[in-house]
């Protein structure tokens, strides 16, 4: 009863297996011994004592001592086909696992909600990894351009000032555009007074709605990355740190270590980067933090120019 995780996974497995009735109605050629086993499979006390290869292999294993008491290991084991062995095994599982599972359901009830949440989170994570893997395989990357990052993360300034360029990058089929939540928040903050922000919001909403494979929103990475004091003192630096956090989260979600991210992600910005000394100290620190994390920061127009020059 303490092995909740084992029971939960076993119940998932059981739901994937055909029922005894399905096996009986399947038209499979089964011997009479196996048919007898299946006919009583729905009963808590299964009478079958036919040996499976697993029984012989696991003989004398202490946890199975009680389960093996009713078997005569000296008897000759009938020769079953693979289908017959699986069918008999299914019936045995029903009797020896499902009914005990029903008995411990009250114990599992308290953990069910947490288990469901974990399962949904894990499934979402696996789905994201699969999608990203498929996208990487579908990117049209000529050799000359394979050195350019496959993932581009535009900041608010890049979208407000150079939306047309970002659109071209997104429709090229050569990059995956990642839009962090903090960038969307920045656009929302500017939309009342900035036409570029409004245009960007409309564009992103349309792309997210139709499920563009090459442009996607990344949810907030959590409060562990917050820097409230910096947010009040230097909003641009704070936003860059938040975008960098999203870049790190992107690489972590794909199972990459921080030492293996060189050239993988590029932040494309509307800021001019020719002379970093003109930036504030916090902004310079944020740029340095990006370099330390192997995340490039490039002006969106310079990146676009470099891409075009590479053909």
Automatic annotation (TrEMBL):
GO terms for cellular component: cytoplasm; telomerase holoenzyme complex. Residues 109-136 form a coiled coil. Residues 150-273 form the PIN domain. Gene3D superfamilies: 5'-nuclease (3.40.50.1010). It comes from the Eukaryota. One of its GO terms (biological process) is nuclear-transcribed mRNA catabolic process, nonsense-mediated decay. It is found in: Cytoplasm; Nucleus. The keyword Signal applies. GO terms for molecular function: telomerase RNA binding; telomeric DNA binding. Residues 1-23 form the signal peptide. This is Nonsense-mediated mRNA decay factor SMG5.
